[in-house]
Amino acid sequence: MQMVTRFAPSPTGDLHLGSAYSAWVGWHRAREAGGRFLVRIEDIDIRRCRREYEQSILADLAWLGLDWDGEVRRQSDHFADYGRVLDQLDARGLVYPCFCSRADIARELAASAAAPHASRHGPDGPLYPGTCRHLAAAERRSRLTAGEEHCLRLDAEKAAELVGPYHFEDETHGRFEGQPLLMGDFVIARKDTPTSYHLSVTVDDHLQGVTLVTRGEDVLASTHVHVLLQKLLDYETPLYAHHRLLTDPGGRRFAKRDRDMTIGAMRAAGLTPGQVIDRARGAVASLAAPAARP
Ligand code: GLU
Question: I want to staple 229 with a disulfide (CB 3.0 to 4.6 A). Which of 82, 141, 202, 218 is the partner?
Answer without folding.
Answer: 202
